[in-house]
Design goal:
It comes from Tritonibacter mobilis F1926. InterPro entries: DUF1036 (IPR009380). Keywords: Signal. There is one protein chain. The chain is mostly beta strands. The protein has four helices and 24 strands. The longest helix has 15 residues.
């Protein structure tokens, strides 16, 4: 064997043993029966970053991170109608259109959605990795619509929070906030077009009575198929909720603030969003009752609930008594 031939064999052997930098990447491979819409999150040198959306055809892969992978963990979200995504409750900001977002906090304040992602472990010192989307996906229950249709009639009061139209590949939907629960109504043909149009005209924060069938999706979220919707006359709770709208800053800690929008409270500290809660105004809260009005809040992810008594409110100041400790929390209006 000549020396050039020997060198060629050595080059071929090394190329088989060492990973190819040109081919190294993080690939998301669609081994399901439908095209999938994917986004990723990761930590760069400066901050957390989220990027999307890639449309991955059936049987194909999307290269979402090119080149040798500099880190072990990446994060995945899939949003495709008809599929249920299993996440690891790791939050990033996303947008409805294509996006590249730096930072994983204050999503709502910056005009984005806060959604949960699943973690991808590529292993130690792995220059390239392929992840199968079926590991985090399962088909939605095809019998759900039939089950909802057979449920007994559901009646409940709730506060209208607003509608989202054409979110990624999901159907448009409207959100209502009841006591301890969020209700979603999808524009998928099961709720009449007349009711859907009526919902578009309701002001945010207005109390309504809902009639229809209910299917519980998560601990604090239910899907509704509406048969009727009645806007309620304003009462003292409605007027109080209207007066709570806006930004409130703690008088004890200027870094502590929250914003009320409809029946949603967005909590922040030092300008960074810390949690989103749903709120309800009531005559009592848990085991507490008495004179005045009580503010009941619950976290939109964990479902953790808190009780406060509203001891005073004006155009400029809000005082809440946290129960059961009796601690008074005073806020001033900022906008």
């Amino acid at each position: 064997m000549s020396l050039p031939d020997l060198r060629l064999l050595l080059v071929l052997a090394i190329s088989l043993v060492l990973p190819s930098v040109a081919q190294a990447a993080l690939d998301l491979c669609n081994d399901t029966s439908d095209p999938q819409n994917v986004a990723i999150g990761y930590k760069n040198a400066d901050s957390w970053v989220s990027e999307g959306w890639w449309q991955v055809p059936v049987g194909e892969c999307a290269e979402v991170v090119p080149g040798v992978l500099p880190r072990r963990f990446y994060y995945l979200r899939v949003e495709t109608e008809g599929w249920v995504f299993t996440d690891d409750k790791l939050g990033f900001c996303v947008d409805d259109d294509d996006f590249s977002i730096s930072g994983d906090d204050s999503c709502a304040r910056r005009g984005f959605r806060h959604e949960n992602f699943a973690r991808i472990d590529t292993g130690l010192e792995t220059p390239d990795y392929s992840h199968s989307l079926s590991l985090n996906l399962k088909p939605a229950d095809p019998d759900r619509a039939a089950r909802i249709a057979t449920h007994p009639q559901f009646v409940s009061e709730a506060v209208f929070q607003g509608c989202e139209t054409e979110v990624a590949s999901y159907s448009s939907f409207c959100t209502f906030i009841g006591t301890g629960r969020r209700f979603l109504v999808y524009d998928d043909g099961r709720t009449s077009s007349k009711l859907w149009q009526q919902m578009q005209e309701i002001p945010r924060g207005r109390r309504v009575e809902l009639y229809g069938q209910r299917e519980d999706l998560f601990d604090t979220t239910s899907e509704l198929v509406l048969t009727a919707l009645v806007v309620q006359s304003e009462n003292r709770f409605d007027r109080l909720l209207a007066s709570l709208q806006g930004l409130w800053l703690s008088t004890m800690d200027p870094n502590d603030s929250f914003r009320v929008s409809g029946a949603e409270r967005i909590n922040s500290y030092a300008g960074a969003e810390t949690s989103v809660e749903y709120i309800s105004l009531q005559d009592s809260c848990a085991d507490y009752d008495g004179e005045g009005v009580f503010l009941y809040t619950w976290d939109n992810n964990a479902g953790t609930s808190l009780c406060y008594q509203i001891t005073r409110i004006s155009d400029e100041e809000l005082a809440l008594t946290y129960l059961p400790r009796g601690t008074e929390l005073v806020y001033r209006r900022e906008g």
